[in-house]
Design goal:
single chain; mainly alpha; two-stranded antiparallel sheet; 21 helices
Length: 479
């Protein structure tokens, strides 16, 4: 017998289902995929699609706090969970052939991906400091192992060690900040924190928030806590990097929103100033350093730092409009990034990771589909209309102007102009440079079809942005 009523267990169905599915994937890989590891990949994709269907069927419920105040289920959590299932399925689908070519298509990779996804789901519904920390650690520990998954790669082990050490420091920082909050309030409930702290929480609160904001910035990969990002993107297997670069961004948004926008809603003035500085530093430093990169993966890493800054700018506005804009930006960014990594995964082959910009010279002549998909992603991430990235940046800038933070809006615009240079440089290499001596690429029709759909979605959401914008506003109070 369970101490919780059936109605509460039903609301937590995505997490319960995924926990059981992880056990099933382990058993399936043990008994049915010994000589054909591709079966585990197929089974995992089916698990993810079924999870997305269950989450979608459950969506639209009114806000309910369950499990003795530990868990919250609302429209935001349902949207984040649905997005996490779909983007994880996309990332694993794109990675399948890459893993097989390198002989690392093992069941453990898919189990680790699912446990990381479970951490995302827990974070999306965290209503308590303990639940939030459990979600953070479940996600982080899985990602550390994924980065080091290729044991033959020295760079992967080095990247995993850096990620693990810095991640452990960030987790300790988060835990210390939360312990100070608990000492000041006597509660772990995010819904009661703000009330217990009052209007003038004092110096102890400033110390706690400084630690918490630093931990959030690390999870986003924002400057100056970004040191792990380029090493992980370049050192880890590209399939692992694709997962690290996409789905955890939804968890980072959930962590920031639950902890700051909900848990510390009455103290917005204090933490929004800290986030404003980190966000401005991230968009400037990320875009400037990306200009000097010759590796596409490191360029994408510094681009991720800059885009994390844009998401934090939405939080720095301290308004419902800013939070909904940050959510819209997060979803758009993950959609664009998974397509960019798909091109890298498809372009790579035995003995070549296709991680250098030189590898993409004349790509249009060798493979028009890959070049077109990458061009759509680059234009969108640069903020060129009519792609979805344009609307994402515009919403952030409008939210900043609406909250009276003109200087942050100016920084965002200037940083976007700088970023346009290195994004468009990739387009120039693909369409206006002579192709090098690269062998032809032959990949499955299903992989290429999914990439085409992904690229079309980047354009379609830009041509018809209102549906996703309205959805993001509807799930955020005051959005």
């Amino acid at each position: 017998m369970t101490p919780f009523p059936t109605s509460e267990l039903w609301l937590a169905l995505p997490e319960i289902y995924l926990t059981g599915a992880i056990c099933l994937v382990l058993l399936f890989d043990l008994f049915f995929a010994d000589k054909q590891p591709g079966r585990t990949a197929t089974f995992t994709l089916l698990v993810l699609l079924l999870g997305a269907v269950l989450t979608w069927r459950q969506g639209g419920v009114d806000r309910q706090v369950i499990f003795a105040g530990m868990y919250v289920v609302d429209r935001l959590s349902s949207l984040l969970k649905l997005g996490a299932f779909l983007f994880a399925a996309l990332a694993l689908f794109y990675s399948r052939e890459y893993l097989a070519r390198r002989g690392i298509q093992k069941g453990e990779f898919y189990v680790l991906s699912l446990t990381a996804l479970l951490g995302v789901l827990v974070l999306a519904s965290a209503a308590n400091l303990v639940t939030l920390y459990v979600g953070v650690e479940l996600l982080s520990l899985s990602l550390y192992a994924m980065v080091a998954f290729d044991r033959e790669s020295g760079s992967g082990a080095e990247a995993a060690m850096k990620y693990f050490v810095l991640g452990a420091i960030a987790s300790g920082t988060l835990l210390y900040g939360m312990s100070v909050l608990y000492g000041m309030t006597g509660t772990l409930d995010l819904g009661a924190l703000s009330t217990q702290l009052g209007d003038s929480p004092g110096l102890g609160f400033t110390l706690a928030v400084a630690f918490i904001v630093a931990a959030i910035a690390f999870k986003f990969g924002a400057a100056p806590f970004h040191m792990w990002v380029p090493d992980v993107y370049q050192g880890a297997p590209t399939a692992s990097a694709a997962m690290v670069a996409t789905v955890p961004k939804l968890a980072s948004f959930a962590m920031a929103f639950r902890l700051l926008s909900e848990g510390l809603a009455a103290q917005t003035a204090q933490w929004s100033q800290m986030l404003a500085v980190l966000a401005a530093l991230s968009v400037v430093a990320g875009n400037l350093i990306a200009v000097a990169q010759t590796s596409l993966l490191r360029m994408l890493a510094y681009s991720a730092i800059a885009n994390a800054g844009f998401i934090l700018l939405g939080f720095a506005s301290g308004t419902g409009a800013g939070y909904s804009s940050a959510l819209y930006y997060t979803l758009a960014y993950v959609l664009m990034t998974v397509a960019a990594f798909a091109v890298v995964l498809i372009s790579s082959r035995a003995g070549c990771e296709a991680d250098q910009l030189e590898d993409y010279k004349g790509l249009h002549q060798r493979d028009p589909l890959l070049a077109g998909a990458m061009a759509a992603v680059m234009f969108s991430t640069a903020g060129v209309p009519p792609f979805v990235g344009f609307w994402a940046k515009l919403q952030i800038i409008q939210a900043l102007l609406g909250s009276g933070q003109l200087w942050l809006a100016i920084v965002a615009v200037v940083a976007s102009v700088i970023g346009a240079f290195y994004y468009l440089r990739v387009v120039w290499l693909m369409y206006f440079e002579a192709p090098g001596e690269q062998p032809a690429m032959t990949r499955s029709a299903g992989l290429r079809l999914m990439l085409a759909i992904n690229a079309i979605a980047v354009l379609a959401l830009g041509l018809f942005p209102e549906q996703l914008l309205a959805l993001c506003r509807s799930v955020i109070p005051g959005g």
